[in-house]
Amino acid sequence: MIEWFVKGKELANCNCSYGCPCQFNALPTYGNCCAAVGFEFESGQFAEVKLDGLRAAALYSWPGPVHKGNGTMQLVIEEKASAKQREALLKIMMGEETKDMATMWWVFSAMSPNKLKPLSKPIDFTVDVDARRGRLSIPGVIETTGEPIRNPVTGAEHRARIDLPNGFEYELAEIGSGTTRAMGELKLDLKDSYCQFARIHLSHQGVVRKASAPAQAQTVM
């Protein structure tokens, strides 16, 4: 198995109500599950290939709960990535070179037999985890915005977090409200639904918990 790690930020919007039942081993709010996710990797490495500063995104749709499978997925890698970087990120996000069930990418890929052709596109991505604000924009593919949940009476920002000590995606996520319009092959139309903002640190063995990333070897672009 090739050793790898990525460390960065994530913005994710799914169709469930605030809280997302999946985070609590419950069934999705409306019976099905669909989501859009953006990533910015501040640092990362796949064998000798450096992944610092790259962005990626993923679109998912399942007719029922994720664990029942038959999903459809499409990955997008930032167009500035070199061929080696693109190949590395696709392997990571397809769940390859990863311990079984160790990351959300492994699980989502295993539950998505319908894989659309990966795209190479410019990705505009900003996220402030603590402020619970973010935006993902890929021309002709997707527009996602995330913001704080608002108190329905006062309009004040409401803050809630999910702490998953044994999760496969993050350790702590800030929860907000998201809106997504995906207009490519995999279409989504989400409004004021579950949105999470998280700092992620993952490796071929799963979430890196309070540990340093692997030492970086000589890099290949």
Describe the fold and architecture.
There is one protein chain. The protein has 221 residues and is mostly beta strands. It has helices at residues 83-93, 104-110; strands spanning 4-14, 33-46, 49-50, 54-62, 72-78, 114-115, 119-121, 124-128, 133-138, 142-147, 149-150, 157-158, 160-163, 172-183, 187-203, 206-207. Strands 1, 2, 3, 4, 5, 6, 7, 8, 9, 10, 13, 14, 15 and 16 form a 14-stranded mixed sheet that branches. The longest helix is centred in the middle third of the chain and has 11 residues, at 83-93.
User: How would you classify the quaternary structure?
Assistant: single chain
Unreliable residue stretches: 211-221
Principal-axis shape equals: globular
In total, the number of domains comes to: 1
Number of strands: 16
Strand content: over 45%
Task: Indicate the percent of residues in helices.
Answer: under 10%
User: DSSP helix count?
Assistant: 2
Mean pLDDT: 94
Largest sheet, if any? 14 strands, mixed
Order of helices and strands: EEEEEHHEEEEEEEEEEE
In angstroms, what is the radius of gyration?
A: 16 Å
Alpha-carbon distance between the two ends: 21 Å
